[in-house]
Automatic annotation (TrEMBL):
Superkingdom as given in the UniProt entry: Bacteria
GO terms for MF: hydrolase activity, acting on glycosyl bonds
UniProt-recorded name of the protein: Glycoside hydrolase family 1 protein
Entries under Pfam families matching the protein: Glyco_hydro_1
Alphabetical UniProt keywords: Glycosidase, Hydrolase
Family: Belongs to the glycosyl hydrolase 1 family.
Length: 460
């Protein structure tokens, strides 16, 4: 076989509690920031569809897990919802949530599917947002408390934990770009949010290690490789700054236990450093992970600004501009460039510059609008474009493995078409089509292909 992967390679997919469970107002769950935001600004969500009934996994998890099995999965990642497990953020554990997650995890294990469990996927409980969200150290402490409960409740069966999914996204979307609640645009506050998230991550890692369990803990980062337009000094500087602010700001604390001095200098230059408390440095050092999840969708192409910014930047994008590479291949539905080699570049960077820590591709995928156009005579979506997309990325992943990358697996985003933050069900990513009217699930052509690849440990 031309592209043969290791026998124990993780084949699977990823989702998250808020995007898949549904039952957002049932089972004792309290509102998270997306539930709240939908209640006050439904026009921000595509088609006016909010997070209330996302993909109904809460009600269908048994048959959905049977589908995972059919898709050849040996592993699956989802998250625990903080607002479901501890509805008031800090106090009583919700027994209905414990019963639900126990049932899900037991079912996955019974099917021979390893659960990889993430603790936070953009879904701050609203009650904790009201107490300052990530701007508040009290919320950091509450998150560590929540994480510790998760370890105690489920750690006997969950052996692969992740503290956060894409922690830069709530910073960029919630505090810089006006894309997610609380829709703040303030660079200084964004830096504080990022810094406190890194502390929360480290605190959870420390709490997990203190338990001396026989599992591992990591973080999931969207490592968007940064490519300068040219080798001109101004383009290189712009690219370096984008990389420091948007990749290395979480990558270095998670893998090295400290920040890159260049990032500190850059923030200092613009008077954007967060408040540092005694003990923070030691805590960050304790946050080095065992395992890194990498979400990869698109490259970041950067050029110098035509007019250099003077004064304090309002957002990172005041320090660089995005660059559209001529001839780039696009996914027009999501507006994201498709660049398969990026996956290889990330894995090579991790191998050469970060000690080749165990890692896996925790998300990669292609969201396509109007997939009903591709429903064939057999009644399934004939999504050859998705097969091409996955295959193209796996070929580069395979090359990275041949060169010694410690990549352990590949997870697609996502399993069943699920709800997306602002786009709701506009772009479909699943191996399985979801009929929104009937909630019927139908495996797409890519799902059958993926199952074959997983069972054969590769493809030709
Ligand atoms: C990642 C998130 C996922 C998922 C995916 C697809 O950034 O971790 O939650 O949503 O992107 O992006 P979108 O849903 O915005 O199309």
């Amino acid at each position: 076989m031309q592209y043969r992967f290791p026998d124990n390679f993780w084949w699977g997919s990823a989702s998250s509690a808020p995007q898949m469970e549904g039952a957002a107002a049932r089972g004792g769950k309290s509102a998270n920031i997306f539930d709240h935001w939908f209640a006050i600004a439904p026009e921000r969500f595509h088609g006016g569809i909010g997070p209330t009934d996302t993909s109904t996994f809460y009600d269908h998890f048994e048959s959905d897990i049977a589908l995972l099995k059919q898709l050849g999965h040996n592993s699956f990642r989802t998250s625990i919802s903080w607002s479901r497990l501890i509805p008031d953020g800090t106090g009583e554990i919700n027994p209905e949530a414990v019963a639900f997650y126990n049932a899900v995890f037991d079912r996955l294990l019974a099917e021979g599917i390893t659960p990889l469990i993430n603790l936070y996927h953009f879904d701050m409980p609203m009650c904790m947002q009201e107490r300052g969200g990530w701007e508040s150290r009290e919320v950091v402490a509450a998150y560590i408390h929540y994480a510790s409960h998760c370890f105690a409740l489920f750690g006997d069966r969950i052996k692969h934990w992740f503290t956060f999914n894409e922690p830069i996204v709530p910073v960029e979307c919630g505090y810089l770009g006006h894309h997610h609640y609380p829709c703040v645009v303030d660079f200084g506050r964004a830096v504080t949010v990022a810094y406190h998230t890194a502390l929360a991550h480290a605190g959870a890692v420390q709490a997990y290690r203190a338990r001396q369990e026989d599992g591992e803990i990591g973080i999931i980062l969207n490592l968007t490789p940064t490519y300068p337009r040219s080798q001109e000094p101004a383009d290189l500087l712009a690219s370096r700054r984008a990389d420091l602010l948007l990749n290395k700001s979480f990558l270095d604390p998670a893998l090295k236990g400290c920040y890159d001095p260049e990032l500190i200098a850059l923030l200092e230059q613009y008077d954007l450093l967060p408040q540092v408390a005694e003990g923070d440095k030691a805590l960050l050092a304790a946050g080095k992970v065992d395992l890194l999840g990498i979400n990869y969708y698109q490259p970041r192409r950067v050029k110098a600004k035509d007019e250099p910014w003077s004064g304090t930047p309002r957002t990172p994008e005041d320090l660089f501009d995005y660059y559209e590479m001529p001839g780039r291949k696009m996914n027009p539905h999501r507006g994201w460039e498709i660049y398969e080699k990026g996956i290889y570049d990330i894995l090579t960077d991790l191998r050469v510059n970060y000690g080749n820590l165990p890692c896996y591709i925790s998300e990669n995928g292609m969201g396509v609008e109007g997939e009903e156009r591709f429903i064939g005579p057999q009644g399934r979506v004939e999504d050859d474009y998705r097969i091409d997309f996955i295959r193209g990325h796996l070929e580069w992943l395979h090359r990275a493995l041949e060169e010694g990358s410690a990549c352990r697996g590949y997870h697609l985003w996502t399993f069943i078409d699920n709800w997306s933050w602002l786009n709701a069900y506009k772009n479909r990513y699943g191996l399985v089509r979801l009929d929104l009217e009937t909630q019927q699930r139908t495996i797409k052509k890519s799902g059958h292909w993926f199952a074959d690849v997983a069972r054969n440990h590769g493809f030709n």
